[in-house]
Specification:
The protein is α/β, with parallel strands linked by helices. The protein has 2 domains: about 200 residues, Glycogen Phosphorylase B (Rossmann fold, 3-Layer(aba) Sandwich), CATH 3.40.50; about 150 residues, Glycogen Phosphorylase B (Rossmann fold). It has a 7-stranded parallel sheet with strand order 3-2-1-4-5-6-7, with helices on both faces. Keywords: Coiled coil, Transferase. Pfam families: Glyco_transf_4 (PF13439). It comes from Flavivirga aquatica. This is Glycosyl transferase family 1.
Length: about 425
Amino acid sequence: MNNKKVLIITYYWPPAGGPGVQRWLKFVKYLTEFNIEPVVYIPENPNYPLIDESLVSEVSDKLTVLRHPIKEPYKLARVFSKKSSKTISKGIISDNKKQSFVEKLMLYVRGNFFIPDARIGWVKPSVEYLSEYIKKENIQTIITSGPPHSLHLIGLNLKKKFKLKWLADFRDPWTTIGYHKQLKLMKSSEERHKNLEKQVLNIADQIIVTSFVTKKEFEQITARPIEVITNGYDKESVKAFEMDSMFTISHIGSLLSKRNPEILWKVLSDLVVENTSFSKEFKLNFVGAVSEEVLESIKKNNLSNYINNVGYVSHKEAVMFQRKSQILLLIEIDSEDTKCIIPGKLFEYMVSNRPIIAIGPKASDVEKIIKETNTGNYFSYSDYKSLKIIILEHFHSFQNKTLQSHPIGLQKYHRKELTKSLSKLL
């Protein structure tokens, strides 16, 4: 039986690091088990903000990977400000009041001259290049994954040109994602974003989203079928390790300016003052990029001496931090727009056997999944008392060597199970 060939158009691919690369790397890994042969199309010379060489070994030698050059404005932007271009490309945007003139200008240019994003220049050459490949290989099905949402415009153009089945995968929303509001958009630019989003949602044959909130949001714009396929976890081979001897609370991933739970820093600061044992055994690990605003809040709460600011590490090292830490921290911006965000690391947290403490907006998808799977506790930005009680309970369990999580029903979030759901759509 011949495998069905499917063309996957994505920007993030090894050696890119960060959460964006994991989703399609794992789908591609398992698709062949469901009689589907993936062909991956990526940029030849991308400007990845994070690099993780360890992920290259996960790409099969048998996989066909097509590459085509891309021109990106971040290289030009570095002429004006290396620091601003690097942080903006990572998604770290300072608060309005703290933005330099150069950063404000770059955000204005990025939002109004590069619609929908800085990879728009790759659309036309990609459509030309892929048109030849589609004709030659008789490709019947394509998938585009965004952000960057420019890649959906490649799908849109190919769909108009050929009789293809097109699946548009949204790892994040488009016009309602938090940073969209920070792009200093003119009214005409905002309308253009919404118009392109509407076209993609109404012309693609199938929409895939990673959250239930995004599905509801998109149902107001399109009648096309929408399937929720969340991110998930894969079996990770971890070398033998010992649990941290300290009471470590670890946050894995970026902590942006607005992901700054003052309430947590206050709880930890009070526990340090009130509980001598806690102050001697507590340590806070930051594994990933941390904004200056967060570090200032930490300092203001007299917690600077308790911080282990590790910085960005490879995915394998991040998994090791997850397994060894006593508690895992998940923080989301307190906003209506972030209720739909389900970070990929949540699923890795869930299988690490460590209790999760999550802080974010009420009634979010993360809260739903954590409660469903019994993998931790979820708090709003005003839950001082209950947050303090849980951290103290966990600390006592740590002292008694009984601290662990008791998850239920995790199997449906395994990457292979999720790929099975994808294969049914194909």
